[in-house]
Design a protein that fits this description.
About 25% of the residues lie in helices and about 30% in strands. The strands form three sheets. A four-stranded mixed sheet has the order 1-4-6-5, covered by helices on one side. The chain is globular, with a radius of gyration of 19 Å. Strand 2 and strand 3 form a beta hairpin. Helix 1 packs parallel to helix 2 and helix 7 packs across helix 8. It contains eight helices and twelve strands.
Length: about 270
Amino acid sequence: MIRFPNAKINLGLRIVSRRPDGYHNIETVFYPIQLQDALEVVSTTEGDTRLTLSGIVIDGDSRDNLVMKAWRRLSERFSLPPVSIHLHKAIPFGAGLGGGSADAAFLLAMVRDYFHLPLSDEELDREAAALGADCPFFLHNKPLLARGIGDEFEPVSLSLKGYRLVLVKPSVAVPTAVAYSLVTPAEPEEPVSETIARPVGEWRDRLVNDFEKSVFARFPEIGAIKESLYEAGAVYASMSGSGSSVFGLFDQEVDLTDRYRNCFVWSGPCEV
């Protein structure tokens, strides 16, 4: 069985308040894009389940990968036989794109289907939430308004079909904890849920990512990418999550690969 976990971008991201547990309440829209990893699960005669990796190099022990944590949750619950798992990474990590969460969520769904486990969609959502706040989003893979710590979802009426997305990730990495430490939470004058209902042409300077101000100050090269996307004709541009990737929405075909020679660049149509 093989499936293709996809990335997401954040459309707006407001840090609304700090919680007693140390986390932050946010408001954002998660939007799925077609930048994809590849994940394969097959039966094995070996004694243990193992994860092999290819593509973008991931540091650390593969046993600590979210994919393996997802496997262990279901394996221990249902006493499953071992499998061989292979993950080909194409989604950059440390980019605000949710690649690790997507891989874990897809693994949960694949194991349920592979072994015909008696898990409802609601139960699978709960298993995913235990792995990460944004993991359940990738089981739905449609635009969703997220609140709380990014784990409370509501449907949102939004379609970006007809737009082309250009995603640029520089080599710099932005630690999430550092990004949060530099932000002062505040209730926005206009919540993301209202701004997102406006035409895309009105999003500039309205649909705000609260991380940008402090991240751009510390990593000006990221802010420069956003400005250059606007110079290239983007209708809207923003950093995704806490960075370091930046995306632009275009209403026509563009090829900006040569503009960002030292960066990861991906481009594709918006499909939802």
